[in-house]
Write a structure and sequence with these properties.
19% helix; Immunoglobulin-like; 42% strand; alpha+beta
């Protein structure tokens, strides 16, 4: 009986230690970019995370060849909107330059090679802001 109780407490302690380690790993990556090479695609400029950018795309895509995407923002004075697909061989899907009269809302289709992060980068008042979402692709393919 005593041995069973010890094993129970060992499992509890081990489980809580794993949870603590996972929590620390999350904290360690909280301030880092979702894509280490992201800044290099934008002339090594700093990119801040923003809640003012919205990416609308399916969570699950049956086929990665044509995935509908909508990117919009409430940031003022938007100059450019870009989409980067982290898992693609050529990650930068597109960059659109916008003038001051254009509503910052873009709808198109993108090619997604595999399950990955899709990142929207918006240039507003000379600064870069980003947000990202995950997409699961059922039939990955080679875009090249």
């Amino acid at each position: 009986m005593n041995l069973e109780r010890r094993n129970f407490f060992k499992k509890i302690l081990l489980g809580s230690g794993v949870v603590m380690l996972a929590g620390n790993a999350k904290l360690a990556t909280a301030g880092k970019s979702t894509f280490p090479g992201l800044e290099s695609l934008f002339s090594n400029r700093k990119i801040a995370k923003s809640g003012d950018i919205t990416i609308d795309l399916p969570v699950y895509a049956e086929n990665g060849r044509s995935v509908p995407i909508s990117v919009s923002t409430t940031l003022p004075d938007v100059e450019e909107m870009s989409v980067v697909i982290k898992g693609n061989k050529n990650p930068k899907a597109f960059t659109l330059k916008l003038d001051s009269k254009t509503v910052p809302n873009v709808e198109t289709h993108i090619n997604v090679e595999k399950t990955t992060d899709v990142i929207a980068v918006v240039k507003s008042k000379g600064k870069l802001y980003s947000t990202s979402v995950d997409i699961l692709v059922n039939n990955p393919y080679n875009c090249s």
